[in-house]
Structure formats: structure tokens, C-alpha cells
Design brief:
- The chain is an alpha/beta fold.
- It folds into 3 domains: 206 residues, Tetratricopeptide repeat domain (Serine Threonine Protein Phosphatase 5, Tetratricopeptide repeat), CATH 1.25.40; 179 residues, Rossmann fold; 151 residues, 2-Layer Sandwich (Alpha-Beta Plaits).
- Helices cover 51% and strands 15% of the residues.
- The strands form 2 sheets. Strands 8-9-7-10-11-13-12 form a 7-stranded mixed β-sheet. Strands 4-3-2-1-5-6 form a 6-stranded parallel β-sheet, with helices on both faces.
- Helix 4 packs antiparallel against helix 5.
- The chain starts with a helix and ends with a strand.
Length: 567
């Protein structure tokens, strides 16, 4: 059982909060397991899932039994702090402060001590906060060695207005942390909170400035024999140099891209050479992607693809075959852009977009990359590298015989759909009939065509070709259900994927949708990563909060889970 508890801890450390919570719920009934640790982990994972109020129910009784345990007090104080941040209620700030302070007086633990000091200041008990901070300084000033000890000492200096010492201690903590962005984010979030209650020096904010996130989209290298040059092989080095200049100008640390030959691979290579993180998104089965987007340019591009794909984390939108479905490329662009937005949101900032796009080509063509770029919600944070200005008059085409086109095995009736599973099992029977009629009437009013509509027991499955069309229906159903109650009696799962519309009962992507719905708590809307990334392109319409990682039953792959809230 020790191994099982260690596994739960590992899941939490890697952000897989939903799985951790499910495991701890199962362990609660096992008498051979350390009940204290199980309930600590249950409360912690539940709070990390975005439900600190429920976590509080798990932990309050435990805290009464073990008031001297620093771990229990630390988790409980953190839960109170999370509720305070959600509700902005001074009551919870004081509860957090009192929990931390009581344990500090009993144990002398520096972690609960520094949190007691900060929460005192936040709750308006400034003098008490400074007194506690001075005690932390006395405790750690000569003994600090780990990054957390230095960060706690720095925070104590900050609370006592010892500016120079705070800057020096935070610098030491930052040096020890290195490129562990999770730890950077933790301290950044604490400084973000404190800055609302006392002035945090700009030097400190710069030390823990969050990393700059960049999304990328760009042309593939011209295929051999292309008659009108756009991105000929001769421009490869100049384009690469321009990408490097843009990355350095933005001081980008984290990049999201695909790995088609040309712009994608060049961007990934430069990010890697500059010491940044690279996150790869592939739209469908890898072999098909190589055949459609790399092979025509030569084996050396395939080799570069393999080196990058094996080295950096890769997200597959689907493991299905391409099947001639170009909508998957459109979804690819949206997911890359949305991934960068979701990552930036954790740092309270907006991402940048770098593109390598012919402006002549963009004016001439409609759809595809052009439409995706137009969806970018931060046009002032977009840098385009235009290959048109690099083309010499009479620029020759890429030499070589025309490449053999990829032979498409077209799969009919398998469009990319935005799908919802609306679970009505907790809704009154009379309400089920009303909701069913509402959904059908809304589709008619909006002139929307359901590609999928199925009533499966106590759930309704919907599939549309537009994300906003689907979300308008979900919003209407959501708002019409128990309109005077904050807790809705239904739950909704969301997923984006290619769907076999003529064989929906067997479609594994719809089975994945069902598993998302099963993990979704009653009163919530939760989305797979792909759909959440698309919704991130509409920051004024939707709020997206990370929940954790789940396994999709349909294809046995993992997916990040996000809670969706209408703005």
C-alpha cells in the first residue's frame, strides 16, 4: 500500500489530479492503509481539481484529530486560501491565517510560519504578519539551503520591507529552481497574490517573471517542381535566421507547434537551440502525417522530424488515420493556438504568435491557415515573417521532379465534430422532456444541422461541425436548468474529434466523450484538451480551468481535462 500512496503522490506532482482523487477514494475503504495520509491526499487532489469547498469537508474532521501535524495544517491552510481567492472573503483569509499560525506555534515549521505571516498581511493583520515574518528570518537567515527555504526567507524579507535582502534571497531561490516552471509558477502566483496587498518590488517580479509562450504556424517547404515559388528550399537558412531573431526579441521560453517540413521544424529546432521548451501537436496517425506533410521534401526532413518528435512531448489530436480529412489540419491550427493560450493563462499573461506566411498567398487563398490566423485573439501580439520579400526576381522553383502526391484513402462520413454528452440522470423526469424539446428547437432556430443526435438512456449526445453552434445550445440548456440555483443538476462532457456519423454506436471517439462525461462532477461542464484549446480562442466567452488528466476509454490515451464556465 505504500507503493499505492507513492503513486498517488506522483500523480499529484505531475498534475494528474483527477486520477489521484479516484485512487484515494478507492483507498479510503482499505483498513490497511494509512488513513491520515489517504485523507490528506484526497483533500489535496480534490482542491487541485478546482473544488476546495468539497476538499474542506474531507479535511476539517481530520484536522481536529491531528492539529499538530504540519502536513494536515498546511493542506487545510492552502484550501482556505484557495477558497479566499475564489470568493474574496476575508473570513477565509483569517481561517487560513489562523490554521497556519496555530501549527507554527506548535511545531515551528517554517512553511506554515511564512504562510501565516503572509495571510496575516492579506487579512489586514499587518503588524502580526511582520512579527511572524521576523521570526522566520531569525530561523532561516543563517541556515537556508533549499529553494523553498530561500523563497520563504525572501518572502519574510518582503513582508518586513527589507527590499534589498528580499531581492537577493529571491535571486538565490530562482537560481536553485532553474527551468522547473512549476516551481516558478508557484512563487509567481504567491507574488501575484501578495502584490494586491503590499507593493512587490519590480526587481522581484522580474526575477520570477513567467516564461513567454509562443504559438507557431507556417508554410511547408515548397515541394519539388512547384511552379510558383512560395517557400523554396533556397530560403531555408534565411527563414530560420528570421525565426531565431523573433524568438530572441520576444525572449520566448515555451513554444507550441506541429512538425511539418519547413516552418514548423525550423521553429522547433530554433526553440531547442535557444534552450526553450518545445511542445508538439500532431493532427492524426504519425505515419500518415509523415506521408502527407514531410516525405515529399526528402528523407533529411523525416530524420529531423523523428529527432524532434522523440525528444519533445507530443500531443495527438487523434490517433485515427488521415482519411483525406483536411478539417483535421484546420483543427490542428486551432489546437496549437489554444494550447499556447491555455499555458499562458496559468502565468496571467497573453501568448505571442509567430508565423511564416506569404502575404500574397494569404490574400489569394481562403480557408485553411488564413482563417485560423484570423481567429488569433491577440492581433497586437503577432509577428509574421513574410517569405515574399526574400524572393529574388525570377526566383527559381525548388529543383527536382514533381513529388508523387500522397495517395488519399478517403473515408466518407467522418467529419471533425464538436460533441457534447449532456447527462440528465440527476434531472427531474419532466425536465428531461423539456430539455429534449429545447435542444431540437434551438437547432431549428439557429439553422444548425446535427451530424450526431442520440438519446442514450439518461444522456443526449450532440455533434455539430461548429464549436460555437454547439456551445450556444449547451449554454441555453445550462441557463434554462434550475435557473435560480447555483448548483445545476446536470453535467456536460465536451470533445472534438473525427466521428463516424453512420456508425456512432461503435465510434471510439464518442466512447471517449462518454468517459469525459463520467469524470465530470454534477453541476459542471468539462472538456477534453482539444476542445478546451479551441474554446481558448474565445477568451471573452469562456473561462477554462485545468482539472487534471484522465484516460479516455475510447482509445486508451490520456487527455487533460478542463472545466468550462460561460462568461
Amino acid at each position: 500500500m505504500l507503493n499505492e500512496l507513492a503513486l498517488v503522490e506522483d500523480l499529484i506532482n505531475h498534475g494528474r489530479y483527477v486520477e489521484a482523487r479516484e485512487r484515494t477514494l478507492n483507498l479510503r475503504n482499505d483498513a490497511s492503509v494509512d488513513a491520515l495520509r489517504v485523507n490528506q491526499l484526497l483533500a489535496l487532489s480534490t482542491s487541485k481539481c478546482g473544488s476546495p469547498e468539497l476538499a474542506l469537508e474531507y479535511l476539517t474532521g481530520l484536522y481536529e484529530r491531528f492539529p499538530d501535524d504540519p502536513e494536515t495544517a498546511g493542506i487545510l491552510g492552502g484550501i482556505y486560501k484557495s477558497i479566499f481567492r475564489k470568493q474574496q472573503s476575508t473570513r477565509y483569509a483569517l481561517l487560513s491565517r489562523d490554521t497556519y499560525a496555530k501549527n507554527f506555534e506548535q511545531t515551528g515549521n517554517y512553511y506554515t510560519g511564512i504562510n501565516a505571516a503572509s495571510m496575516s498581511v492579506i487579512a489586514g493583520k499587518t503588524q502580526q504578519g511582520r512579527e511572524l515574518a521576523n521570526r522566520i528570518i531569525s530561523q532561516l537567515e543563517k541556515t537556508a539551503s533549499s529553494e523553498w527555504e530561500w523563497a520563504s526567507l525572501a518572502e519574510a524579507y518582503l513582508l518586513t520591507k527589507n527590499r534589498d535582502q528580499a531581492v537577493a534571497a529571491y535571486s538565490k531561490a530562482r537560481q536553485l529552481i532553474g527551468t522547473d516552471w512549476g516551481k516558478v509558477l508557484s512563487i509567481h502566483n504567491q507574488l501575484w497574490l501578495l502584490n494586491h496587498y503590499l507593493p512587490v518590488p519590480k526587481e522581484v517580479l522580474r526575477i520570477f517573471a513567467p516564461p513567454v509562450v509562443v504559438a507557431f504556424a507556417g508554410h511547408m517547404i515548397d515541394a519539388p517542381g512547384r511552379t510558383t515559388p512560395r517557400f523554396p528550399a533556397a530560403l531555408e537558412q534565411r527563414i530560420k535566421d528570421s525565426i531565431r531573431s523573433a524568438i530572441r526579441t520576444l525572449q520566448a521560453s515555451i513554444g507550441y507547434c506541429s512538425l511539418a517540413c519547413g516552418g514548423d521544424i525550423l521553429f522547433a529546432e530554433v526553440m531547442a537551440e535557444e534552450g526553450g521548451e518545445v511542445h508538439v501537436v500532431i493532427p492524426f496517425k504519425q505515419e500518415d502525417f509523415v506521408d502527407t506533410s514531410i516525405r515529399f521534401a526528402g528523407d533529411h526532413w523525416i530524420e529531423r522530424f523523428m529527432l524532434l518528435q522523440q525528444k519533445y512531448p507530443t500531443t495527438f489530436i487523434t490517433h485515427d488515420t488521415y482519411g483525406g480529412n483536411d478539417d483535421l489540419f484546420s483543427l490542428l491550427g486551432r489546437v496549437i493556438f489554444g494550447s499556447a493560450i491555455l499555458r499562458s493563462q496559468t502565468y496571467h499573461q497573453e501568448p505571442f504568435l509567430i508565423t511564416v506566411l506569404s502575404e500574397i498567398d494569404m490574400k489569394r487563398r481562403e480557408g485553411g491557415t488564413r482563417d485560423t490566423v484570423q481567429l488569433w485573439p491577440f492581433p497586437q501580439r503577432h509577428t509574421n515573417i513574410n517569405p515574399d520579400i526574400m524572393l529574388a526576381p525570377g526566383q527559381p522553383a525548388t529543383p527536382g521532379l514533381p513529388s508523387q502526391p500522397y495517395t488519399r484513402t478517403f473515408i466518407p462520413n467522418r467529419p471533425v465534430l464538436y460533441t457534447a454528452c449532456i447527462d440528465l440522470s440527476s434531472v427531474l423526469p419532466m425536465e428531461v422532456e423539456r430539455i429534449t424539446k429545447l435542444i431540437k428547437s434551438l437547432a431549428g432556430e439557429e439553422q444548425l444541422s446535427f451530424k450526431v443526435y442520440e438519446e442514450q438512456g439518461e444522456a443526449i449526445l450532440l455533434g455539430l461541425e461548429t464549436e460555437i453552434g454547439l456551445m450556444d445550445i449547451v449554454r441555453a440548456v445550462w441557463n434554462s436548468t434550475a435557473p435560480f440555483k447555483t448548483e445545476k443538476p446536470l453535467r456536460v462532457g465536451l470533445h472534438a474529434a473525427p466521428i463516424y456519423v453512420n456508425a456512432t454506436a461503435e465510434d471510439h471517439n464518442l466512447k471517449a466523450l462518454s468517459s469525459i462525461s463520467q469524470f465530470t462532477p454534477t453541476g459542471s461542464i468539462c472538456s477534453s484538451f482539444g476542445f478546451a484549446a479551441v474554446l481558448a480562442l474565445y477568451p471573452k466567452k469562456f473561462q477554462l480551468d485545468y482539472v487534471g488528466v484522465i484516460k479516455l476509454n475510447g482509445d486508451q490515451t490520456n487527455s487533460d481535462l478542463y472545466q468550462v464556465t460561460f462568461k
